[in-house]
Amino acid sequence: MKRHFAGFLLVGLSMVSRSTRAAPPPDPDEAAPEFATQFFEAENILRQLGDWKSEAELSRKYLDRVWAENEWNSDADQFARKVGKAVVEIPPWKLHQRLETFGDLIQERYRLDDGQRRVLAGAVQRELFGLTMRHAGTIFKQTQEAVGGRLRGEPFSAEQIARWTRESEPLMADARRGVERIAERLGEHLRPEQKALLADDIESYEKRKAFYERLRAEWAEGRWKPEDWGLENDPVQRGASPADRPQSLEEVRPGPDGDETSGRVLAFDERTWRLYATDFIRRFRLDPSQTRAVESILTELVARAGEYRQAHKDELDAIPPTERATHEGLEPIRVLFKELEQRCGTVPTGAQRAAAEAAAAAEAAEAAESAAAAESADPTKPAVEVP
Asked: Is residue 40 in a domain?
């Protein structure tokens, strides 16, 4: 879902003309800290998708198919498709790179001078910042649900999409107004020939806006289909077997040599750290806010470990399974696990720590008592020891 929202917004940023009154900007002093936290949490959640190539390929095919089916063949239509395909090549957690690519293509098409490029960049940044600030809760929640579902191999359902569509309508309406404000702001600084080009792009944009508004009305009524998002051939959406699906961190169960079999936490294998976090949350009975903090820490460190592993893939793949626990090549990942333990350790309160220690002590005493009772009841053990 995030893929299509981002594409809709970025492709249309300079292609609408009608102005509307801007929503009042949020108070930065009040909203910025929470916004920053949620922004980085959402970014880290997206990073769990890992290799973006398969997602980008789905998006490219989707854009080609929709443009062909709707016969969007004008010069402005083809430019919009070009922008969309260029943007989806870049992982969504690299937002700055996406915006730079978008700006480069707009500058090339309109032959913007440096001053006009600065106007465009400033308008885009202001609108995106305001949009994400005003709707951070919706964006974060739906990102978490969508990515979590894909990592667990769960297909999207029409009922789920209907709920997301209804919940995100204020966000989408605000995004449309933002597009209009950007186009109006940029239009004030364009030369006549550039304004004529903008008019063509506006007309092209209006067709796609109407198309997606019709689709969103259907989705809100529970009539979403996988092909609406280009997922008709997606392995997860088709319900492929676990071996063919992206692996969920929750599903990983590492064995003695690092394979997924036994359920142990291994410091050198970030795929197993979810087990540590889940147990930590349960053991200290963390509240929802604390749980989100642990999840955020986990997501960040798993992403950092994954980046290191990808950068040293050939070297790490060559390490024999029996040497992974101590091999120096995996030391940076083990260090990240230690950081996970340390940072999670700062989350519980003193009272939660005391309660966890008391519960652990009681559990140990109960286990010892049970073991003693089982031993005394062992029918194979003589009631009287024979000398």
From this structure: yes
